[in-house]
Amino acid sequence: MIVSSVIMPYAHCMRKFIPLILLAAALLLTGCQVTEDLSMDTSQSGRSFTDIHVEQFFIDVLEDFAEFLPENNESMMDSAIRGYASELEETEAISDVSWASLGDNKYTVSFSFSGISELLEEMGAENQSLFTLSANSMSFYLDINNYPELKAVVPFLADQNFEVYGPEYNQGMSEADYLDMIYFLLGEDGPEAITNGVININIEVPGNVVSTAGCTQTGDSSVSYTFPIIDFLLLGEPLAFTVEWE
Question: Per the count of CB atoms within 10 A, which of 59, 180, 193, 200 is most buried?
């Protein structure tokens, strides 16, 4: 398992980052079901609510490497989510952070933000092209060319123990070949866990939706954007959507 290679030689200096690394693995390399509800007002501030469901497969794999983690009375996933929330609290554009364990490997994380652009810039994505915002529109675009911008925002993606699983290291690889690699590295349950992983983003915009591209309108002022985690891991095609409102 990838977690061991980073924790064993650097257990002391990596202590602060272990919760984030665990959460990263949960979100990107297993069959997580992640739903984020994002509401935004006319000033582009708003609130994010995220539901995370981690498959037991991931918990079982992590427990094999529990001896390399700092001693903690919490479960590994509780510690990971708590660490993630702590990282959010250190971001000036974010406030009112909260999280909860719902049992059965299910969690919620929520926070308020002062503005999407401000949030991305504070997290390291200056002059970013991931999000394009105007008074009545929002666009998201991620491909292999601007993927480095996402790594600036989400540092664990640049960790050498995760990069080998990401799109930069696997450009041009077919889904079948990628899943064969996962089978070899994570065991027979790994490929199915990854193919089951889905990210769903529900967005409430400050007006009535008038057009969409790449996402689905779900209400007068709401849209939904859904993609399999493996599409992110390979980035064979861009992940993109646009919504406009009045």
Answer: 193
Kindly tell me the burial class for residue 41, based on how many C-beta atoms sit within 10 Å of its own C-beta (0-12, 13-18, 19 or more). exposed
Provide the H-helix boundaries in 147-223.
Answer: 147-153, 160-163, 175-186, 190-196
Nearby residues of 52 by Cβ (< 8 Å), 6 or more positions away:
26, 27, 32, 33, 34, 81, 106, 107, 108, 109
Q: What is the DSSP-derived secondary structure letter of residue 67?
A: G
Roughly what angle, to the nearest 10 degrees, separates helices 56-63 and 18-28? 140
The CA R_g of the chain, rounded to the nearest whole Å, is 18
For the chain, 246 residues long, give each residue's pLDDT as a single digit of tens.
Answer: 222 222 222 223 333 334 444 445 544 545 567 788 888 877 778 888 888 887 776 666 666 555 555 566 667 777 777 877 887 888 888 899 999 999 888 888 899 988 777 777 776 656 778 888 888 999 999 999 999 888 877 766 776 767 778 899 889 999 999 999 888 877 787 788 888 888 888 999 999 999 999 999 999 999 999 999 899 989 999 999 999 999
In this structure, are residues 116 and 131 in contact, taking their beta carbons and an 8 Å threshold? Answer: yes
Residue 165: phi, psi to the nearest 5? Answer: -95, -10
- Is the separation of the CB atoms in 47 and 107 below 8 Å? no
Instruction: Compute the distance between CA of residue 209 and CA of residue 221 in angstroms, rounded to an integer.
Output: 5
